[in-house]
Amino acid sequence: MDQSAEPLQQVQLFGGAAEIAVPSRFEDVSNIRPVPDNQEVYSDASVDQSIVVEVVQVDVPDSDSCQHCFNDLANVSGASMQQIESETVLNPQDIPGVPGEAYKVVIVGQQMVSKGRQGTDAANRVIMAIIRLKQVSSDVLIILNTPISVSASSAAAKDIGPGERSEHLMAPSLLRRVLATFKIKDYSLFG
Hints:
The protein has helices at 62-77, 157-160, 171-179, and strands spanning 8-13, 18-23, 27-28, 39-44, 49-56, 81-89, 103-112, 123-133, 138-150, 163-164, 183-184. The protein is α+β, with helices and mostly antiparallel strands and 191 residues long. The longest helix has 16 residues, at 62-77.
């Protein structure tokens, strides 16, 4: 599937305080299981991809935010390995729905994450955008998780098959398209 041209659907986040467009094939995970109040999660089980939008407060300088947030995600996910491949600071036009002065960066990396009984030979590409909103002392993380390989012992293997996957190759361009649609509509979201 060419993810760079697939249709997107606009969804409301956090009760309408923000919005974003996600691939129309993605489902709202909160319709399936509980999701923390500071997160919105959308996924496509047919390719084991997910998009997470999370509001956090990170007390580190901008220059340390990539390493901090990526390591924190790896820790929470129980990753046995994590590696940042690239960091790209974004321009205001890349995410026009947030203040131009906000620090915006995209991290591309890999994490070896075991889901349930998934073997350690499964790798995920993690593309994380960090939007630092200093005026409200909060950060918004927009994370696209997509498998590079799926272990035969993974629960996902029964749905998408084990082995190497190709969706991760287009994931960075997919996230760029999604980021361009992100908009904060009500700053009371940040308390």
